[in-house]
Amino acid sequence: MRKWKHDIGLESRMLLTMFLLGAVYIFFLIFLAASGVEPMFILFFAGIMMFIQYYYSDKMVLWTSGARIVSAREEPELHEIVTRLCAIADITVPKIAIMNTMMPNAFATGRNQKNAVVAVTTGLMQRLDREELEAVLGHELTHIKNRDMMVLTIASFLSTVAFFIVRYALYFGGGGNRKGNAGLILVWIVSMIVWIVSFLLIRALSRYREFSADRGAAIITGKPSKLASALMKISGMMQRVPSDDLRKVEGMNAFFIIPAISGSSIMQLLSTHPSTEKRLAALEKLEREIEM
Question: Is 108 helix (H, G, I), strand (E, B) or coil?
Fold first, then answer.
């Protein structure tokens, strides 16, 4: 695998985000213990939800997206590209799927390399040239190599717990004495704050990992400019996809290389992906690094 200097700034931001997320969660657990709350049932329920998401994410994503696993006989060129890139990246070749839609996009899912799936849409294959397609696949394979599904699932666990505590307090907190209700309201407020802060931190972590996957694609292919070209094509074509088609796949935004609906500049704080402009700037910097 091609190597050059690590992006210390990006890695530091990811570590800081994970540290802050851990600090928020530790505070939340201490607060629950001090408040006399017994969240074992909620922890157990949230754990089951995370277990299902973690172990069956690949099947759920394929089912919801309508993507279909294809063999090497059906798509020999696609399999050849993925196999060669996996050899460079030193990872196990994942399953390969195709999503039948004119919207140009790609995604990867799965809890580890052995259970991973990388998928591309028919629209992407038709609109990108071979080197651009390789760059996009390199991005998705980096997500697999970096175990991003596992990282984000673990990071979101206590955020999910906080969410269920809020729901529990809303639906089942009507009875009890005044003192008990006051305590329940306090737990509800703190849980809501933890959920909001966690949500924002997880979104930031997700955006940093997109930058990391872009960098990985540049390392694997040695051609950051090709990923930049692909991103410009995809983002430009996304504007011409009918709004009905975009809404059908809006729930897949976290998986796609570029969200189907990007939102306003204010909403970028809530986005799972950095803006295309920021990604292009980072890729331009990588291009200069390679040439040095």
Answer: strand
Non-local (6+) Cβ contacts of 217 within 8 A are 135, 136, 138, 139, 141, 142, 224, 227
What tokens does 268 get? Answer: 């970028």
The string of DSSP codes covering 136-187 is: HHHHHHHHHHTTHHHHHHHHTHHHHHHHHHHHHHHHH-S-S-HHHHHHHHHH
> Of 272, 268, 267, whose CA–CA distance to 257 is shortest?
272
pLDDT band at 78; cut points 50, 70, 90: very high
- Cβ count near 87 (within 10 Å): 11
Sign of CA dihedral 37, 41, 42, 43: positive
pTM (2 d.p.): 0.77
Active-site residues, by number, are: 140
Candidate ranges 1-15, 119-133, 231-245; pick with highest mean pLDDT: 119-133
Beta pairing class for 117-121 and 68-69: unpaired
Per-residue b/e over 36-75, b at no fewer than 16 CB within 10 Å? ebebeebbeebeeebeebbeebbeebbeebebeebeeeeb
The tens digit of pLDDT for each residue in 203-262 reads 888 898 999 999 999 999 999 999 999 998 888 764 544 444 434 444 444 556 776 555
**Dist. CA 232–CA 234, nearest whole Å:** 6
Copy the structure tokens of residue 206.
């997700």
d(CA 90, CA 88): 5
- Sign of the Cα torsion 271, 276, 279, 281 reads negative
Which two tokens mark 110? 């799965």
- Is the model's pLDDT at 147 over the cut of 90? no
Question: Residue 19 and residue 38: Cα distance in Å, rounded?
Answer: 26
Query: What is d(CA 152, CA 110) in angstroms, rounded to the nearest whole number?
Result: 12
Phi/psi for 73 (5° steps) reads -70, -35
